[in-house]
Design brief:
This protein is mostly beta strands. The chain contains two helices and 16 strands. The chain folds into two domains: 2-24 and 130-232, Trypsin-like serine proteases (Thrombin, subunit H); 45-128 and 236-242, Thrombin, subunit H (Beta Barrel). Helices cover 6% and strands 41% of the residues. Strand 12 (193-197) and strand 13 (204-213) form a beta hairpin.
Length: 258
């Protein structure tokens, strides 16, 4: 398994059948007359992320999903070794100017699930986003994702799985519910949102987050399940934003509250 920021993760995952029954649950943002519709394409929520390295950690780039105009969901390994973070909307195909980067702070980290929240110092778009989160989709479902570059790419869910891997920046083994995808991804795609169009409502539902490519087959990609995202957001929603600082000796972000 190799993370999509150019850093290798020797996770050696053991893939087990995911036999847990999952109930389809949605989580919607507060309604707002100015918000984009949930039927908007995933590109409306795509964010590019760049970091400067902390200590001996290298700089990195990745992707993220706008949950609110100033709040971005991304993979923890994209930002965990950073001393500074910036976020920007991907450049459109007709825009030759570089995207405007906005400085940001990491406000939540879950190194077991490989998830993080980044809060930008200025909103990346106007209005409020409505992004339903779905716990699971079945094998064979067609999904779309957007990395740090503009454009939605198609993928197919090969299997729902329990992924056994090393904790981000750690050796302890952890389990994550997720998907094996038939999709070709590359550097900078970690943190890309995985979206599935609901045939009944037409909504583009967030069903997962891309975090690694298979070392055995470059056409296979790993993604976290929506249930992991919901559990992470639930755990952080009732708490104040954490503040993280660079531990230069360990080359990793640590919370200031200990």
């Amino acid at each position: 398994m190799r993370c999509l920021t150019g850093q290798r993760v020797d996770a050696g995952p053991v893939i087990l059948c995911w036999i847990l029954a999952a109930t389809l649950v949605t989580s919607c943002a507060t309604s707002d007359v100015n918000r984009p519709s949930a039927t908007e394409e995933p590109t409306r929520r795509a964010v590019g992320i760049e970091t400067k390295g902390c200590g001996h950690a290298p700089s990195s780039d990745g992707a993220g999903v706008l949950l609110r105009p100033d709040l971005v969901l991304t993979a923890a390994h994209v930002v965990v070794g950073s001393t500074s973070v910036s976020a920007s909307r991907p450049r459109t195909s007709t825009d030759e100017s570089p995207p405007e980067a906005v400085s940001a702070d990491v406000v939540a980290l879950d190194r077991d699930r490989d998830l993080a929240l980044v809060r930008t110092h200025a909103p990346l778009m106007a209005g409020t986003l409505d992004a339903p989160i779905i716990n699971t989709v079945d094998a064979g479902a067609v999904v779309h994702f957007v990395g740090h570059k503009q454009g939605s790419r198609r993928a197919t869910v090969v299997a729902r799985t329990v992924i056994v891997a090393d904790r981000v920046r750690g050796s302890r083994r952890v389990r994550r519910l997720g998907y094996l995808l038939s999709a070709t991804t590359g550097r900078g795609d970690s943190g890309s949102g995985l979206f599935h169009r609901n045939r009944v409502t037409g909504d583009q539902e967030l069903v997962g987050l891309v975090f690694a490519v298979s070392t055995d087959d470059s056409s296979r990609t790993w993604a976290l399940a929506g249930s992991e995202i919901e559990a992470f957001l639930t755990a952080t929603s009732s708490a104040d934003d954490d503040r993280f600082v660079c531990d230069r000796e360990e080359s990793v972000l640590v919370p200031t509250n200990g």
